[in-house]
User: Fold this.
Amino acid sequence: MRLEKCWFCSSTIYPGHGIQFVRNDAKIFRFCRSKCHKNFKMKRNPRKLKWTKAYRRLHGKDMTQDSTFELERKRNRPERYDRNVTESTLKAIKKIDKIRVAREARHHAMRMKGKKAIEQQAAAKELEQSIHLVKAPAALQEDPSLTLPKMKIKVSQSQMEDRMEE
Amino acid sequence: MSASFTSKWSIAGRSLLGSLSNNLLGAVKTTHEVIPRLHYNSIFSQQQRTFIQMRTNLKVVDNSGAKRVMCIQALKGRRGARLGDTIIASVKEAQPRGKVKKGEVVYGVVVRAAMQRGRCDGSEIKFDDNAVVIVNKQGEPIGTRVFGPVPHELRKKKHLKILTLAEHIA
Assistant:
């Protein structure tokens, strides 16, 4: 039994699922579900469809090169069954999975790093420009502190009194 | 009782008809021709592939001399032949100097079928076209070479000679 990868979306195909299509040049295409199969028949390029792994890898959304992928490489030589090897392989799979998940999370964090700062800046700008959507202009004229968040401005006592009189 | 039966049929009818293994309602002859294709928007690739039956044209993929044959009888199967089955065919087109001539009636083994065939591990396999290898009555191929990929299913059907001649086993 072998767990294959879907040609289109690169997800694993478990036994009992999917369709294999053999082209006349003997190239085999395996699909995990009919969604991938139908897209293939429509001649869509997986590198252009956002939900496929091919797109994500190509556009840097997911990790491309990592040593944890070495374990999953396809090996064509069948291994003689050895109980110890099997046991250690199973342990290794668990460990490598954990490491891989941690690395992917880190990659994602790196990708999203500057996002908060950008969001804050955009929000401040929007507040400045579109405050008229929230407060009526008449109210703005009365109390200048409604325009922007409160900032400490050093004002001398006499200037404050002048403003109040106006 | 018949009323409840018909209501059940109408509710579940569409989903049942969609699946291949539809022998509950014995009246349905084949699932393929009868399906109301209501929800498909005619995209060019939404073809429902069926069995190999009388009048089906098949490509010949050995060097026996024939190029195209037309099936005149599927030896097993009420609805038609599938991947790995034997058929009786009439040679429609042949190469000028070959072992078979045009108009001859020959036996053939289907080595590639566009209709998907289920494997015992639950997956399905399908090929790009319908192709046949010409054999004699005993099941031995007449030609000496086979072109293109052939499926594993031939091993179960004891067409081992074809497997040995094949260049790629899918």
About this structure: Residues 1-42 of chain B have pLDDT under 50 and may be disordered.
